[in-house]
Specification:
294 residues, alpha/beta, seven-stranded mixed sheet, four-stranded mixed sheet
Length: 294
């Protein structure tokens, strides 16, 4: 479901693609059959910033205007409206390739309005809503499924899951965090079950688990952080039925511990928070033992 996406700005249906040479030589197909009723506008975007700047040095903006005009001629019978078009046709260049597509979705989600300092109940640290949404999506959970965040804090991950129509369950060792999470979920009219529970004492198991373990100066980690995070990953493995999505500071790699508890790494992504901190998002799947054939 593209409407769940976090970091994507828009989605389009590809109507034509080819080399830049073929774009100029060939006649483009009629694009109106894929368009809805009403007006249109053509937008141009380059994915290759270096070639775009060098091209502009050589030929200025004339080539861009010619490309837009060529695409517009394939929208026969449609009225151009640059201000409020009903259809937006994108002409996207990437090195020597051209992609022409019809915009089918634009991301207008107000993630910035759900940042930690703007929520009803705040926390010292919390994931950006976009990152929380992306982590939920990486679980692959679909409605009417449910996710568990066993280290929920003030509920940032639960908010994003709940807004997508996914069931949410959360727990935290700190009752103050649980109460704040309840207030935040209520503010967004999200129903969820939240309990105070030490993760190491929890016996809950969910098919999809997603969480952001505590880190930094604002946490209550006692002793060796590496040992603590190893215990966390082993416990999360025990709580996961199908897929686990978890973030760790770049300085702590959970993969050695994961190999000891039937977790298989299927993806990992770096996310730079600031100069001194990069978090890595790990996607694990629970290994399923294959029964021998008889």
């Amino acid at each position: 479901n593209i409407r769940r996406l976090a970091y994507s700005r828009m989605a389009m249906k590809i109507l034509w693609e080819g080399s830049i040479a073929s774009f100029w030589k060939r006649r483009l197909p009629d694009l109106t059959s894929a368009m809805a009723r009403g007006s249109f506008a053509v937008r141009l975007h380059s994915l290759d910033k270096d070639s775009e700047s060098s091209e502009r040095k050589r030929s200025g903006k004339s080539d861009a205007r010619k490309m837009i005009a060529k695409v517009a001629t394939s929208c026969n019978g449609k009225k151009a409206d640059l201000t409020h078009p009903k259809n937006i046709i994108w002409c996207i260049t990437d090195k020597d390739r051209v992609f022409i597509g019809l915009q089918v979705w634009k991301n207008e989600e107000r993630f910035a309005g759900r940042r930690n300092h703007l929520r009803h109940a705040k926390a010292p640290v919390s994931l950006h809503p976009k990152l929380a949404r992306a982590m939920v999506n990486l679980t692959g959970v679909q409605k009417p499924g449910t996710i568990l965040d066993p280290l929920c804090g003030t509920g940032g991950i639960l908010i994003e899951a709940g807004l997508m129509g996914i069931g949410v369950r959360g727990q935290d060792i700190d009752m103050l965090m649980v109460e704040r999470a309840k207030k935040n979920l209520a503010a967004f009219r999200i129903a969820g079950k939240l309990t105070q529970k030490d993760i190491f004492l929890s016996r809950q198991t969910f098919s999809h688990v997603v969480t952001d373990p505590p880190y930094g100066k604002n946490t209550r980690i006692r002793g060796d952080a590496a040992v603590f995070y190893a215990r966390i990953i082993r416990k999360l493995a025990a709580m996961t039925g199908r897929r686990l999505v978890v973030s760790f500071p770049q300085t702590h790699d959970p993969r050695p511990a994961a190999r000891t508890c039937d977790l298989e790494l299927v993806g990992m992504f770096d996310h730079v928070l600031h100069r001194s901190l990069t978090k890595v998002i790990y996607v694990f799947e629970k290994k399923v033992e294959k029964k021998p054939r008889r």
